């Protein structure tokens, strides 16, 4: 993949090396290497560390892109966070598109649709992304919800984070056999 995209691996690694500190932790190095690998466009390539920082709290919902924008739905697929306002315009006052830009460096380079879909999935780790944006840790999210992307009266709702990481996957879930 790197040859197809014309990635200069030596230059990419030199850039990582130039920013290394003597006391770099393995998870941070892994994160920097993931940013390099994401440029290749291989959606299966990544670096993982058992020591990687994990979120301790998660949103009690999942995000999905639709033709009209991002929607927030319950992990059991029984409904939206707000059935009258399924679209999520912002989290903690930050527009969804700005969150996507925060996550983008770690997402495999690909079509705009692939990047957006994977970034919205990655928002399960909003606790970590808050840190990257210099935002304080909190056990709630302020979600700006709307009936549609151009709803003139969106509503801010505080949502309690959970210790249970919501999961994506096929739906409805089926047993094997």
Structure notes:
The protein has six helices and six strands, in the order αααββββαααββ. It has 177 residues and is of the alpha+beta class. Helix 4 packs across helix 5 (112-122). The longest helix is centred in the first third of the chain and has 13 residues, at 26-38. The N and C termini lie far apart (36 Å).
Roughly what is the average pLDDT, rounded to an integer?
83
* Proportion in helices: 25-40%
How far do the termini sit from each other? 36 Å
**Topology order in helix (H) and strand (E) letters:** HHHEEEEHHHEE
Which blocks of ≥5 consecutive residues have pLDDT under 50?
A: none
Shape: globular
Q: How many beta-strand runs?
A: 6
Strand content: 15-25%
Number of helices: 6
- Rounded radius of gyration (Å): 18 Å
Structure summary:
With 177 residues, the chain is α+β, with helices and mostly antiparallel strands.
Core attributes:
single chain, 177 residues, alpha+beta, four-stranded antiparallel β-sheet, two-stranded antiparallel sheet, 6 helices, 17% strand
Question: Could you give the topology of this structure?
Answer:
Elements: H1 2-5, H2 9-18, H3 26-38, E1 62-66, E2 69-73, E3 87-91, E4 94-95, H4 96-103, H5 112-122, H6 126-132, E5 140-146, E6 155-160
Antiparallel strand pairs: 1-2, 3-4, 3-5, 5-6
Helix pairs in contact: 4-5
